[in-house]
Amino acid sequence: MSGLATCDVCPRHCHLAPGALGACRARRNVDGAVVPEAYGRVTSLALDPVEKKPLARFHPGSYLLSVGGYGCNLACPFCQNHQISQAGEKDVAWRELSPEGLVALAEDARRRDPRVIGIAHTYNEPLVAWEYVADAARLARERGLVTVLVSNGCAELGVIDELAPLLDAANIDLKGFSPAFYEACGGAQGSLDAVRATVERLAAEPGCHLEVTTLVVPGKNDAEDEVDAIARWLAILPGDVVYHVTRYFPHWRMADVPATPVATVRRLADVARRHLAHVYVGNC
Ligand code: SF4
User: What is the rounded average pLDDT for all residues in the chain?
Assistant: First the structure.
């Protein structure tokens, strides 16, 4: 079919007919080119403590203007933000906020409270409209504000190569260490490899502080061997990667699966500490 276009942002590589929307609901084929339709479409805006991202070792005690839009290239059945991550433009209220407008809001927030140090792109999956992150990050840096990415990390390396030098910190959500779990999270083939490549690329970026988070879901990714393998891999990366092991709570399509026992989270954190100096537990 003429006018078909393929998106090269993530491993899903959506082949889109003219006018069609990608699986993430954020990118569309317009006149034969895949464009980030969700660029600058903001659904959520809040001042969050940096520890909430979570970032444990990046300017503790500071605050970030946290911004989210809609769309995601995964569909984790336990998603805490499914109202926006699984939404398209007609499913959720949004407003246009240019990169200039976003940076101006962050500067206003910093004037009111000097603990505000920058902007976090978070809540839904920022990489599905990564161009917005990049444009805002360039402006933020000019104004002395930091940029933080909170992401599933599931993107092609070309995207991460563009973004990495613009980031001051990132928290990448590593769902688990098996392709099967990524598939259960709605990931396309190659998703785990893509996330691993993202983590490796960001770890190698000198100006980007990196933390990684795994939400431990009972019976899905709570095997000691799996966390041990993750920690071993993180330990050989450049820098001193911080790792969070966090507790799952029933939500959305997994409302029937009970919360992770606190003891399990603490035990898995101890497993990770065999290899890593900085391991934190979350939601406990
Ligand atoms: S970012 Fe991924 S899910 Fe979205 S349109 Fe591109 S290939 Fe498809």
Answer: 97
